[in-house]
Amino acid sequence: MAEDQRPIGVFDSGIGGLSVLKHLVRLMPGERFVYLGDTARVPYGNKSAETVQAYSLQCAAFLLQHNVKMIVVACNTASALALDVLRRDVSVPVLGVIEPAAAEAARATTSRMVGVIGTRATISSNSYARAIEQAAPDKNIIVHSQPCPLFVPLVEEGWLDTPATRLIAGEYLRPMVANHIDTLVLGCTHYPLLKPMLTSMLPDVRLIDCGECTATVAAEMNGPVDDEPITSTPSIYFYLTDNTPSFPILARQFLGISVNEPVRVSVDHLTLPHIEHEES
């Protein structure tokens, strides 16, 4: 168990961030977690950058009320549009999902042809392409990006490997195959549930799970833990900003465990504590 007993905070615009939480729990089983899903205002992908930043700051303010020692932004849109603001205004370390996955993709590719799939907002932000370039500026990696807007509703419907899902995936992936990518970033936290299907369709392509990469970095940031074996169930407190009847089913699908009913909360009135910034 880590010396710092404060919990780790995780927030997402909805429930996709549970795929990130799954890896956080796996790598840090002795930690406590507070998960906030902003289901009342999902999706973030069709909001302006200013709105996403405001929502993200309110989610962070809620997690800080729970005395978290770190915040993981388990949302690609918020990571793309609000991470700099969060790191400026939040008093604890903040980690997004884009930088860790981009760094892993840059390390993994040998052909220098990397694909990125995500929501329209994430792809339009060009955040992954920039982050991959920053991770390996001398490698001259070519990034092929493809929005896959139908993947999220398919996952939430539970259609993880049906003929219809494969047909849609084939259309989305055709440009990637034509460009001979050897690495594909799953740039949405829902997409790891499609990993078995995507692996069968792209057997020679390395799939990069942004949640797994982020959890690895978070564990490194959190420091070493004791070797004491963990026998209890994970300590996770779930909060949603709107009731989502399907949450227990989806949570079991994402996490692989049964979870307690989440607590409904409101965050739109919250503000962050003031932080004094050093003059540059």
Q: Which structural class do you get from the secondary structure elements?
A: alpha/beta
Number of helical stretches of at least 4 residues: 11
CATH architecture of the largest domain: 3-Layer(aba) Sandwich
Low-pLDDT parts are none
Reading the helices and strands in chain order gives EHEHEHEHEHHEHHEHEHEHE
In one word, what is the shape? globular
How do the strands line up in the largest sheet? 4-3-1-2-9-10
Q: What is the makeup of the main sheet?
A: 6 strands, parallel
Helix content: 40-55%
Query: Given this structure, which CATH class of the largest domain is correct?
Result: Alpha Beta
Number of domains: 2
- Tell me the total number of β-strands: 10
- What is the alpha-carbon Rg in Å? 18 Å
**Could you please say which CATH topology of the largest domain applies here?**
Rossmann fold
Mean pLDDT equals: 91
Q: Give the DSSP E fraction (strand runs of 2 or more residues).
A: 15-25%
* First-last Cα distance: 38 Å
